[in-house]
Amino acid sequence: MLVLEQAADGRVQGRLELPPEPDLQALRVELPPHCRPSPAPPGRLRANCGPDGLRGELGVTGLARGELIVHLRRPEAGLQTMVLRPGQTTAPLDPSPGPPPGYLALGVEHILGGADHLLFVAGLTLLVRPALRLAGALTAFTAAHSLTLALAALGLLALPQAPVEACIAVSLVLLARALALGEKPSTGAAWRLAGACGLLHGLGFAGALAEIGLPQGAAVPALLAFNAGVELGQLLVAAVVLALAALARAGLARLPTRARAPLRALPALALGAVAVAWTIERVLAFWSPA
C-alpha cells in the first residue's frame, strides 16, 4: 500500500508499506517530474511539488505480482484511491469524475478469486433450469449482494466478519443438499434462495472493500464499478459451468445407464464436502485466538 499526503503548500509526504517478500522489494515509486524529492528514511517519500501539487502521473516500476493500493489525500480533492496491477507503469494523479480506476477489475477478481462465492454461483448454475429462470436467480443474487455490500461499505450496516463467513459456508451446504436431492426449484423459490444467500455474500464482498476503502467523493461510482465487476465475473463463471455441464451430459450419454447416477452426484457431493468442511472450520474459528 502507498499512502501519499499533500499539504496546502505543495509539500508531499508518503509511506510505502509492502509485505516482506523479496520480489516485492524491487518496487519503486516515482513522483511527477515537477516534484523535487527530499531525503527520507527507507519506505518513506518526501518532496515539494510546488503550487501544482500532485498532478500528472505517478510512476511505478517493479510490480511483478499482486496489486498496489494507492491512497492519495489532497486538501482540495479529499481522498483518492487507486488500485494498480502488474504491467501498469503509470497512474493518473488528477481527480477523475468517473469511477476510480481499478474497482471494476477488483470486482471481477474478487468473484473469481473468492472460492466460496465462485462455488455458489457454479452450484446455482447447475441447480436452476431453464436458462431464463437461471438468469432471474442470478439477477436476484446480484441485487441482494449489491444492497448489503453498499450498506456495509458506506458504514450503515456492520456485522462481525467471522459469523458472516460461517453463514456463507452454510449457504453452500444448503445449495449442495438441493443439488444432491435433484430439486428443481420454481422461479419464486430460485429467486428466494438466490436473494437470501446474496444478502450474506454481499457482506462477504464488503470485506474486500474494507481493506481498500472507498474514495471520498467517489464512493458511489466505486461501488457501482465494483458491483459491475462482480456481475461480469458471475456471468463468466455461469457461462463456463454451462459449457462444462453440456460436455459432461454428452459424455454421460455414452455410458451405461447404471454408471450415470453416481457420476451425476459427484458435483453435489464435492460441493457438500467442501461446504461442510468450511462450516466446521469457520465455526471453530469463533473460539480461536485472533
TrEMBL record:
Signal peptide: none
Transmembrane segments: 103-127, 134-156, 162-181, 193-212, 232-253, 265-287
Domain of life according to the entry: Bacteria
Pfam hit, one: HupE_UreJ_2
Keywords assigned: Membrane, Transmembrane, Transmembrane helix
UniProt-recorded name of the protein: HupE/UreJ family protein
Origin organism lineage: Bacteria, Pseudomonadati, Myxococcota, Polyangia, Nannocystales
